[in-house]
Amino acid sequence: MQVRAGGAVVNIALNAVFIILLGWGVAGAALGTVLSNVFAVGAFAVGLSRGSAPGFGQFPVEIDPVGTYVDGDTLKDLVRIGTPVGARNLVWTAAEFPMLGILGTYRDGTLAAFVVARRIWGIMNTPGWGFGLASSSLTGQALGQGKEALAEVYGRDIIRFSVATYAVSALIAAVFARPMVSLFINPDSPPATEPIAVSLIYAACVAMLFRGISGSSIGPLDASGDTRVPFLSQLLGMFGASIPLIYLGSVTPLGIWGVYLAFLAETTVPAAVNYWRFNSGKWKEISREIRPEQDDPSAGA
User: Fold this and answer.
1) How far is residue 114's CA from residue 200's CA, in Å, rounded to a whole number?
2) Scanning 110, 145, 149, 240, which has its CA 20 to 30 A from the CA of 117?
3) pTM surpassing 0.90?
């Protein structure tokens, strides 16, 4: 955390120099981001290989840079578990092209309004990263100790807390939807842009509640190695529901309601599938295949 925070501080400082002082604009922002990440990677490399790094103190682990770490079974597990995670992260990127292409056929202002709503959606979704990490970390530690019942308790508690937090975030966004949208729209935008964007924010506020369920349910699944289902749920939500709804809105009287429903489908489908998988307990069985043997794999304490 200290290294990542240090990288963020370096990024801010470099942006101030490159953008404000030197006037390099977007190129300066990109260069600052790259250099700050190089700094963070370098600090990790030094700290992990030496056990400490200047300015960051002692590291909790030390790795021999010339040691032997190749293990066939471990590599197979990494590929089997990691590939669906990487593919899941690419789903939105792949879906963005057809989605924006279809939105371009709607009336003037719809595409711009959608982009504005997605930016505000990203701000509302900020807590999700923390809940996902907390869920996977806590459940993963419990599973590593063979405490499956405790892992499930962690998962359920974080799901509840996540939904409650997202409810507060959604309420705030709904109250201040119009002022937030106005920050992203200039006077030259089509007249319909602002009301459509505000309506999309309202749809996003409802969808956010399901995002809390979906994102937090993924944590235990990732921690156990059950990563295929979250990938398939995300794929189904985007390409099986969200994009088809947007298309239907462009060719049928459904109209703009197709976009509103697409926001909901993007989160409700993964939420239903991921929570069903979590609730089934199948992820506990999968975790036993990749974690060290325990005397009592279903122990709760």
Assistant:
1) 7
2) 240
3) no
